[in-house]
Amino acid sequence: MLKFCANLSFLFTDILFLDRFSAAARAGFQGCEYLFPYDYSPDQIAQALSQSGLKQILFNLHPGDWSKGERGLAALPGRESEFKQTVETALKYALATQCRYVHIMAGASTPEVHPNNDVYLENLSYAAKRLNEHEIIGLIEPINPIDMPGYFLTDVDQALDCLRSLNAPNLKLQFDCYHRATVGKDILAGLDKAADWLGHIQIAGYPDRNEPNTGTLDYGPVFQKLLNLGYDGWIGCEYDPKHRTEDGLSWRDDFLNVATPSNSTGKA
């Protein structure tokens, strides 16, 4: 059965962040994710989770100075010590919230710094070893360069090369269907080639990033593919609701009971 978790940085944004946990639970979600927890203490996040009954699925390592265009530190030369500190900070939140997945953002080019693959692999290796001490999985995610210009990791093949190179048991792929569609790549083919490395899935309608049942991307074959591959992880709902989040959740009911695993092969 498909398991959908609410991305609280995108959904229920008409209310305060800490109130979104309970709102998501009332809307029928059992898990949540979000971009960054760092405006709040680990105890505050843990309390919101406890009160709502939600399971914490995923959050991102600190991205650096977002206002200056920083989108992660893992691939940025000269920032290695800061990157290691973001790992330590993320561990505090992960342990407090019993979260098993953290997204390690690669970083984007700025006028001062350009990402470097060797630095990226070294930092990923460090993070994997440190996270593995607590049985936490590190995720890397290709992000399309239109929504995030200059981002270092943009393609599933590039991400898989990194994962195969490091071959760390707790480094996995975060596969975002919207980002894959935005760069014009076939989603079903991407899932096939990434099957052994899938750690987390994210969804949104394409091209406007609204509810998954809007736009030109048919998620029926995508969900069927995940079932056929035996994917039993979570699917993050990282989309911008057209109106109130609660008013647009009918898509979820439509997909919760998709067909059981088969040899079906559709095109998305």
Index terms:
single chain, 268 residues, alpha/beta, TIM Barrel, 9 helices, 36% helix, globular
Describe the structure.
The chain has one domain: Divalent-metal-dependent TIM barrel enzymes (TIM Barrel). The protein has 9 helices and 8 strands. The longest helix is centred in the N-terminal third of the chain and has 18 residues.
- List the helices and strands in order: EHEHEHEHEHEHHEHEH
Assembly form of the protein? single chain
CATH H-level superfamily: Divalent-metal-dependent TIM barrel enzymes
| Count of discrete domains | 1
Instruction: State Rg.
Output: 18 Å
- The mean pLDDT is 95
Biggest β-sheet description? 8 strands, parallel, barrel
Q: Any guess at the CATH architecture?
A: Alpha-Beta Barrel
* Ends apart, CA distance between termini: 20 Å
Name the strands of the widest sheet in spatial order.
1-2-3-4-5-6-7-8
Low-confidence stretches: 263-268
What is the CATH T-level topology? TIM Barrel
- Measured as a percent range, the helix fraction is 25-40%
In what range is the share of β-strand residues? 5-15%
How many helical elements? 9
CATH top level class name: Alpha Beta
Structural class: alpha/beta
